[in-house]
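Field reference: "sequence" (input) and "structure" (output). Example, DUF4136 domain-containing protein:
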Amino acid sequence: MKPTLGALLSAVLLLGGCATTRLIDSDVRSFSSLPAAPSSAGAAYRFERLPSQQSFSEQQAQIEAMAQQALAKVGLQRNDSAAKYSVQIGAQAQREIRYDYDPWWPGWGPGWGPGWGPGWGPGWRGHSAMFWPYPAYSETRWYKHEVSLVLRDLASSQLVYETHAVHDGFSPDSTAIWPVMFQAALSGFPNPPPGIRRVNIEIPH
């Protein structure tokens, strides 16, 4: 039975939708001494900056805006004048060059040419002009992103929540990745599971 035009269009739209999102996978580890989520009356916070962060106030304000969205999702609202908690955040990105061994190109590999065995024909390349004399390594640009967040009770000066997230991949777009990582870092708030966990969040491509 031939597919209808409507079915074909639906399939095209479905494939197009899949191509418009990408996955941000973060390795998250969190520690908490909060027995329960703060009530709405006591869920206000203010940001606390390190001296080094104060030197880059504009950039830090942008990162704080990213964290603020994630904090709002778990019921914490910014109110500098009536804060119960202080929030200290960090975000960084680092580019790495990775060299991966490639056994097929350039170097040894299967192909058409003189091979070991009776006659001439397809086989494994031997010591011949087919051998490429350079190391079989490929170069890849890799980007490692990290975010951290520490929540402190202002009345007692005790740290009550700490979380850290790491993501690495091919994309250098920190402005799109960091907000999602803050959201991942706060998953499970206020009682996150112990140990390192993988948190996957899809975003528009």
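Residues 1-18, 105-133 have pLDDT under 50 and may be disordered.
Helices lie at 5-18, 51-54, 57-73, 174-185.
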